[in-house]
Amino acid sequence: MAVVDNYTSSEFTNHSLHSEDNSTCVLMSDTLHTRRLVEFGSALIGGLMSTVDLSVLVYLQYKRKGAAIDFLLTISVISILILFFYGISCLPDLCWFGIEYEGALRFWHDYLWMFTVNTLFCAYGYLIVVLIIDRYIAMHHPFYYRATFVHNRMRVRCILACLLIGALCNMKWIILEPYSPDSVARSKTAWFKALNGITCIVQYFVCGLLMMWFSYKNYQKSHEINRDQGCGGTLGVIQTFTDQGQRAHEIVARICVIFTVTYIIAYWPYGIYDYIDNPKLNNDDHFLGALFILINFNQALYLQPNLLIFAYSSRLYRSTLIYILKYPFFTIGKCFNFKKPSRPELRPTHELREPAMIDLFAMLYYSS
């Protein structure tokens, strides 16, 4: 989540980033300057990871001729947008590349930046919830999943619902106008504190609790299927699962648990900080500044943990990643008779026997 920083407090030592006669550079404390460097670095690292991850997912989606809209792809795109806006906002403060807060950029930064970035952060969290619910429906109601939930219209509605929740939760930033002179007084009013408390609960804690509940149900269902297969019985409305399909369900259920735990670690402290946000604490306290840097770095890298999780768990994802990374070297080294990297093999959608496997998320493990 993005928060407001008060650059002009007279209670800390100002620090010019370029020179004393450069009036376009923002004056800020050493702690805040360090924060900006770490924020930009974490956004850059996370952006590179997200770009590689998106390349793998787009390649797989294209080769398997899957549905045009996929939750996993949408999450990856939103993570890149978050990190782009997050990183670009640091450049004027650091006085890099000649970018300054002037004209349209000044208007966007003062009135829309907090709303845009935090809306995307909130939508990202609820898209993780939708991804876990998608697996829940696939495992518990496979016939309904195939008949209704996999259609693009339903997926678009889910994505728009996540963006709408994010926008509603962060309208407070447009109301507050955080960089206006009256923002501090407005933030101390009873109505804004109540609004801020409700939105923080919905944005962070409700989202995390939904992840916990549906991840638990998915993991419980996976064990139930294993137990039933071990006894040689059936599960009534749940169709018979192949060993490979059940393995995919089990891995996906575990990954949903990892998503939930990492979300709680990265976002719930932010939810508390968001509610008690104080610009003085944000700038002056070195311990809180270091803690905030750690949380910021953790949150930026959380945006794409699936690069490491999927590469470790999915043979298909791992082989595709290696293929994409090797291909530029093969192109350069053709004159040296470099061996062409082997293309990963995957099963197209029409060959899948289980309705729960048509989603790209589960397909990663069904083909592994």
Would you summarize the structure shown here?
The chain has 368 residues and is mainly α. The chain is built from 15 helices and no strands.
Topology overview:
Layout: H1 30-63, H2 71-88, H3 90-94, H4 104-140, H5 142-149, H6 152-169, H7 171-176, H8 183-187, H9 190-231, H10 243-275, H11 279-284, H12 286-302, H13 306-313, H14 315-332, H15 360-366
Helix pairs in contact: 1-2, 1-12, 1-14, 2-4, 4-5, 4-6, 4-9, 4-10, 6-9, 9-10, 10-12, 10-15, 13-14
What does this structure look like?
This protein is mostly helical and 368 residues long. The chain has a single domain (30-310), classed as Rhodopsin 7-helix transmembrane proteins (Rhopdopsin 7-helix transmembrane proteins), CATH 1.20.1070.10. The protein has 15 helices and no strands. Helix 4 crosses helix 6. The longest helix is centred in the middle third of the chain and has 42 residues, at 190-231. The protein is globular. The two termini are 35 Å apart. The model is unreliable at 6-24, 233-241 and 349-357 (pLDDT under 50). It is a multi-pass membrane protein. This is G-protein coupled receptors family 1 profile domain-containing protein. GO terms for molecular function: G protein-coupled receptor activity.
